[in-house]
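Field log, afternoon session.

UNIT: design team B
ACTIVITY: writing a sequence onto a fixed backbone
BACKBONE:
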């Protein structure tokens, strides 16, 4: 059994970065200054399935965006921290209301600011197109790029490790 699989069995909370993880990392602005992001529906379904399996999902991002708040609301994500470059400090604040051990937390990121959490949690997850420094420190890497289903893979991996994936899939296959 790999270290990632063993660690995934104990995960109670998956924390996600946004740009480069839930999105492709590109920032789109129109002439009026409006920001646009694209989210992958497969990621969204994976997040909902993971929540149904009993694992909470949260977001910690360095940028602030109404789009992210809307997407989090649509997915039933109640743990949302925006505008925080010091992501580990944000994680510590989350843990004051949600007492979990760091070994029970997975963090999925793609670039240097995410490492402050990734090097401390039980399961460090990253995307196929993450920065090489992040890949070198991750326990698990998706085959898909950020914004293209990487989060869905991460959700499936955790559910498979915890033995909940087959039961959730059976709801669709009969």
């Amino acid at each position: 059994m790999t270290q990632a699989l063993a660690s995934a069995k104990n995960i109670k909370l998956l924390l996600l970065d946004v740009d480069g993880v839930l999105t492709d990392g590109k920032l789109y602005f129109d002439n009026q200054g409006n920001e646009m992001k694209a989210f992958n529906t497969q990621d969204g379904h994976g997040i909902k399935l993971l929540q149904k399996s009993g694992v909470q999902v949260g977001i910690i991002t360095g940028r602030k965006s109404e789009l992210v708040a809307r997407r989090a609301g649509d997915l039933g994500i109640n743990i949302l921290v925006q505008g925080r470059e010091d992501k580990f400090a944000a994680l510590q604040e989350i843990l004051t209301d949600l007492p979990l051990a760091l070994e029970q937390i997975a963090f999925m990121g793609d670039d240097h600011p995410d490492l402050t959490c990734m090097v401390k949690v039980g399961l460090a997850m990253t995307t196929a197109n993450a920065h090489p420094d992040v890949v070198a420190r991750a326990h698990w890497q998706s085959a898909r790029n950020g914004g293209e289903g990487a989060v869905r893979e991460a959700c499936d991996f955790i559910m498979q490790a915890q033995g909940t994936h087959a039961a959730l899939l059976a709801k669709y296959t009969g």
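LOG NOTE: The mean pLDDT is 96.
NEXT ACTIVITY: expression trials, pending approval
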